[in-house]
Structure formats: C-alpha cells, structure tokens
Design a protein that fits this description.
The chain is an alpha+beta fold. It is built from 12 helices and 21 strands. The protein has a domain at about 25-180. It has helices at about 1-20, 55-65, 70-80, 150-155, 230-240, 290, 295-305, 320-330, 335-355, 360-370, 390-395, 400-405, and strands at about 25-35, 40-50, 80-90, 95-100, 105-110, 110-120, 120-125, 135-140, 140-145, 165-170, 175-180, 195-200, 200-210, 210-225, 245-255, 260-270, 275-285, 305-315, 375-385, 390, 405-410.
C-alpha cells in the first residue's frame, strides 16, 4: 500500500506545484529601444515581474518600442502575471518628451487585469521650429477590473470599430494642459496659449459577460480657457464668459431579461450658465445595442427599441440673461424688449404651429412664464399608449403626428 500512497502523494504535489514552478519572477533594470514614431529613445526602468508565464526575453520584447506590433500583441494576449511594476518610463523624441512615474498592474490574465495604477505622467511637445508647442501633465490614475482583449486584438487587425474596453472602475485626478493657438500671434494681449484642465473623473460599471448592466460616473471641473485674443476668446467674452467650465454626471441601468434601459439624471452643468438634465426609459432594447462590437448590429438593436418616456430639465444660472443680452447687442435693442417680443411670439406661434392642439396653450404659457422669470423649466414626454418605437419617431415629419403618440407637458419655475 505504501508505494501506491507515495505515488498518489507525488501526483498531488506535482499537480499543485506544476503551475507555480512554470511561473517566473525577475527584475529588469532598464529596457532601452528606439521609437520610429517618436524618432527617439524609449527607456523603461525598474521593471519587476512576479509570477508570470513569460520569459525575461518576452517581457523585454513587450516593453521595447522597436518590437514588431504583431509580436507585442501576441505576447500581451498570452501574458499572465500576479504583478508588473515599472519604476518609470521616458521617451526622448525629436519633437516630444514623455515622462511617466511608477506604474503597477496586478492580476494580469491574457488581456484582463485586476488593478492598474499610474502615479502620473507629463508630455511636452513642439514642432521643428518651436512655433507651436504644448504640454500635458496627468495626475494619478487608477483602473480596476479591466478587460482590454478586444482592443489588443484590434491593434493586430486594424479594425478598431469593433474594439471595446471593459473597465469596472476608473478614478483619475485629472490633468492640466496648454498648447499654442497658431492662429493667434504670440505677442497678442494675454498670449496665444489655450489651456485645459480637468479636476477629476470617476466611473463605475457592472458587467454581465461583456454587457454593461449598470453604470454611474462623474466628470468634474473640465475647464477650457482659450487665448484671450483669439476669435473664440473674443466671442466668449462678447457672450459674457472668459472661459468654459463644465461638469457632467449620470447613471443608468439595463435589465437584459426585460430588455429595459433606464437613464437616471444625466446632467451637464456650467457655473454662471445653468444645468441641463436628462432622464428616460427605453424598452425592447436588445442586448446587442450595448454589448455588440458590430456597429450595424448596434444600430439595428437601437431601432428595434421603444421609448416609454423622456424628461428634460433646465435650471438657469445666467445663460438665458446672457443670451438675450448678446442678441440684443447685435440688434441694437434692449434685452428686456427682446425678451418681451420672444414671449409674445411664443404665445402666438406655438398654438398656430401645433394647429390648436389642446396641449399647445399650456406649452405656450409655460414658455412665457419662463421667459418672464427664467428660473427653471421641465419638459416631460410620455407615450400615450404603448411605447413608441424609435424607428417610428425618426419617421415623423409633422408635430400633430408626434402629439398623437406622445403626451407633452412643460412646467416652468416650479
């Protein structure tokens, strides 16, 4: 019995230890290569790999800029590793310089990953005569539960229309960027630099297979600051703004069993302008609209869906007043006179345009109330009976047909 027990024990040990023995862990001081795209050197330093199925030579090829793309793709698609750490990366090209801080990737598995961290990066670029230049500084970025297999395969095939990312969670501390507006002279008042800033970005998505079933996200403090003397800069100031600042947020969920998509308060907001929000419910949406890499199939799935209801809201924070002031200045009139004229026209033309439909008078009254005191307005559209197919909505050419299918209400200042 003893030899049999010994053989069984050895079999178990070999089975359990076999995969681990096939794994490699090692440190690579520096991988130096030349990038034809950047026309310069690429240095990847402080590389550490823990429990990978790749050899040292394969990891070097994966990180080298001069490795043929097909070979990089092949290595990336088969790579597994508990941990990949890179101390820093630098690219010194003819017109670009890129520096990135420590990078770590955990739970790598053939195009999937558990968690990725990049501490930050910077990019400085210019043309040959330095007439145009720019820089981008990115702060800490964290990704969780990712699958980029489709994108890696697209690198090999060149068909990016079918490429997709699956990222369970994103947290980014944003970036700062500036670049030259070549249409504006360098000695113009305020210079000729366009500036961009993002304070933060976060998103979380739950998947069933490759299909997103719930998601939420927020983008905060996206700032666009044009060169003051540029055409856009002058246009913004004439409208009452020095720069554009935007924030966005929203959430949604999809039930593959009932084929129901719910959009929850998708919002875009801007200080001293206002807040625009959207919510809605769509039924009969095939899962292919969300998960398919085929653009044609996505389009057909969308056309097969039906709209149950839609709600659009706007909270004014100065945009309406600035719009009337801008239009009045161009016409040589007062903003108050222009607003009164708009209110009168709404009361006259909306019922005429809607051919006296019972909904037309309340709609006109709500528009007039909002123009008189522009605080907020909410437009609600709901199917009168069965949900209205998107294909049917797209074919409607007159308002009366639309109103026969959809109940429309407009409420102001409530």
């Amino acid at each position: 019995m003893y030899p049999c027990r010994l053989l069984a024990l050895l079999t178990i040990v070999l089975f359990l230890s076999g995969p681990a023995m096939a794994q490699n862990s090692f440190v690579i001081d520096t991988v130096t290569s030349r990038s034809d795209a950047a026309k310069g050197l690429v240095n990847v330093s402080g590389v550490e790999v823990v429990n990978t199925n790749l050899s040292r030579e394969e990891v070097v090829k994966l990180l080298a800029a001069d490795t043929p793309q097909d070979e990089i793709v092949s290595i990336a698609l088969k790579m597994t590793a508990d941990l990949l750490k890179i101390g820093g990366t630098s690219i010194f090209g003819e017109t670009v310089r890129v520096m990135s801080g420590p990078f770590t990737a955990a739970g790598l598995d053939k195009g999937r990953f558990g968690k990725v961290n990049l501490s930050g990066f910077s990019v400085v670029f210019s043309d040959r005569d330095a007439a145009a230049s720019g820089n981008l500084t990115g702060r800490s970025l964290e990704l969780k539960s990712g699958n980029i297999t489709s994108f890696i395969k697209a690198l090999q095939s060149g068909h990016f229309e079918s490429a997709s990312f699956q990222i369970g969670e994103i947290k980014w501390d944003g970036f700062d960027a500036a670049f030259t507006d070549t249409e504006t002279p360098a000695d113009a008042p305020g210079g000729n630099q366009v500036k961009l800033h993002l304070r933060s970005l976060s998103a979380a998505t739950d998947y069933v297979g490759d299909m997103p079933v719930s998601s939420k996200g927020e983008l905060a403090g996206l700032l666009f600051d044009p060169a003051p003397a540029s055409e856009l800069g002058r246009g913004l100031r004439s409208f009452g703004y020095e720069r554009i600042e935007v924030g966005m947020s929203g959430a949604g969920r999809y039930d593959p069993t009932s084929q129901r998509l719910v959009l929850q308060d998708y919002t875009i907001s801007s200080p001293q302008a206002g807040r625009l929000s959207l919510a809605g419910e769509v039924s009969g949406m095939d899962a292919g609209a969300l998960s398919s890499g085929d653009a044609t199939r996505r389009g057909m799935a969308l056309l097969g869906a039906s709209v149950e209801g839609l709600k659009v809201g706007f909270v004014n924070d100065g945009l309406v007043e600035k719009s009337f002031a801008f239009a009045a200045a161009r016409q040589g009139r007062s903003p108050a006179a222009l607003r009164a004229e708009g209110s009168a026209k709404a009361g006259q033309l909306l019922p005429l345009f809607l051919a006296g439909d019972p909904q037309s008078l309340p709609l006109a009254q709500a528009v007039q109330a909002f123009l008189s005191d522009p605080k907020n307005v909410t437009l609600t559209m709901k199917a009168r009976g069965a949900p209205v197919p998107l294909a049917r909505l797209g074919s409607i050419r007159d308002p009366m047909t639309f109103l026969a299918l959809v109940n429309v209400t407009l409420v102001a200042n409530q």
